[in-house]
Amino acid sequence: MKPLRSGPEGAGATATQGNGDHSKTGFWTLTLGSIGVVFGDIGTSPLYAFREAVTAAAGGPGGEITHTIVLGVLSLILWALIVVVTMKYVLILLRADNNGEGGTLSLTALAFRAMGHRSAWVIGFGIVGAAMFYGDSVITPAISVLSAVEGLAVSTPALEHYVIPATVFILVALFAVQSHGTARVSTMFGPIMMVWFAAIAVAGALHVFDNPGIFAAINPYYGINFLVHHHFIGLVTLGAVFLAVTGGEALYADLGHFGRRPIQTGWFLFVLPALVINYFGQGALVLSNPAAIQNPFYRLVPDELQLPMVALATAATVIASQAVITGAYSLTRQAIQLGFLPRLEIRHTSAEFSGQIYIPRVNFALLAGVLLLVGLFRTSSNLASAYGVAVTTSMVVDGILGFVVIWKLWHWRWWSAALLMVPFIMIDTTFLTANLLKLVEGAWVPILFGVGLVMIILTWRRGTEILLDKTRRTEIPLNELVKSLEKKSPHIVKGMAIFLTANPEYAPTALLHNLKHNKVLHDQNIILTINTADTPRVTPEERVVIEGVSPHFFIVKLKFGYMESPNVPKALAQAKKLGWSFDIMSTSFFLSRRALKPAVHSGMPRWQDRLFISLAQAANDATTFFQIPSERVVEIGTQVTV
């Protein structure tokens, strides 16, 4: 029987799908929103980036700060902002959208489409990029809030002992409110960040003429000359210069929330000018007063305004932290849908916007990691050594996957795509090498964190494959079962039974156990399989496909985008348009609940077996994840060794 679809066969998500209601929303409202969410991380970098870069160039705290050092560092920061952020992300990768969505996993999905299959090396890059984003999600709140609160010690040295307690209090409060949703708070993000960018621009402008020679840093010669003549110190300095562009990857990751044009407008009209003016102001101040390098950002501000600036900086860093926290939630949902992670509880905090979610376990893990970093490093200068590796790794991954997409999906010649992207990949790799020089000082933290997450993802994928293979050995082809039941039918009862399975070609374990123990067959038996598309969302027209097997058996395939939360009852209700009757109150869902035990020979080491079993036990049950009413569910337990 020909499959029935809920729309035209082969229909795909439209190109504007990922942008939601952007066409209905004012352009400038979206631009303001992007300034509040997208640029929080990179917008708070002036708190510490210039200070750390100059200190590194001078050979450490107390080193001599020369005219050559300041101009060289400032030139490197300026051109890093232009090349890495503006050219690579704002002008190129923002165009590589997956139905309106951006980010490493969206780029991975585009690369899948470009290659025509799920290539192992593309999956590998996607896993590494995703793991490193989580590392960034832990470090950004710690260094941002800590650097802002350190302003207390600048304005009032007696308050220095309160910096750590105040930082911990702010971070705990920030993570505690996540469960209530961010919709109301987010409405204030844009105006606050506009005030922040205006304030840092004015603060820089007040001092930019302290030494007008600072404008010479516009010439890239000073940055290149510094690197050529300082060798190892120059490479170390590059690692600190990179702090000025951390958050650049967020421009791409948040593409789906605001759209390309609002993000580009916010960057060129507001964010980039404010950052450049502030950095040049810091440079001019340090040239005229080298002692200001202890905290040049706050030294830009008159004494009477330092406490208000600390308050504003704290608000800005909380917003920057909020952006990466919600980004971690979104990335986790994508990873779950793509099969990279086990199912976790996902709570929706807004009835209007499906993207506003809260994941309790991720929230707790991030808070624990952030507090651990604050306790270990204690100052933003110390923590700066741990920053950068995670972001540079993500940027290298984005560059490589971007090359594949431009070559294969945009149909460029390979050498044209290489001429465009290889220079960016080389620059990102240089920054990565520079950050790896801080391995002993703290760069080991994101690497250790990333390696742990990569191991979890690989274990989950491998364990799932082994489990699927072992389960399949005990199953029989569905067609054979249907023919057998037609010859000798058990007692037929009224109603509909839905059996979830990953492979509709084989009879689900729950169906076999129901026949074996209950010895009954429902009037309608639905073999339900749920697939995740390589697009963020799918249209209602391609959501449901129904295939008839026999008068009593049907195969139903549901498809969801990797940015969607699968709602099975709602999707099945759409099948009414196909003439298929579905009533949730007369339907029973039969699910298999597996008890996993380690096997003697599983294909994985024993420790990995135990890790997979722990992940499976911690996973959210299918009933909750697929939003199936619990009173309509029948669970049948089985024991499987892996």
Please summarize what this structure is:
This protein is 58% helix and 10% strand. It is of the alpha/beta class and 642 residues long.
Structure description:
Helix content is 58%, strand content 10%. With 642 residues, the protein is an alpha/beta fold. It has 2 domains: 17-437, Amino acid/polyamine transporter I (Up-down Bundle), CATH 1.20.1740.10; 477-641, no CATH class. Mean pLDDT is 85; it is low at 7-24.
The CATH class of the largest domain is identified as Mainly Alpha
Strand content: 5-15%
Approximate helicity band: 55-70%
Structure classification: alpha/beta
CATH superfamily of the largest domain: Amino acid/polyamine transporter I
Give the strand line-up of the largest sheet: 1-6-7-5-4-8-9
pLDDT < 50 stretches: 7-24
Give the CA-CA distance, first to last residue.
37 Å
Question: What can be said about the biggest beta sheet?
Answer: 7 strands, mixed
Looking at the structure, what is the overall shape?
A: elongated
**CATH fold name of the largest domain:** Amino acid/polyamine transporter I
- CATH architecture classification of the largest domain: Up-down Bundle
Q: Can you count the beta strands?
A: 9
How many domain regions?
2
Mean pLDDT: 85
For the CA atoms, what is the radius of gyration?
A: 27 Å
Number of helices: 25
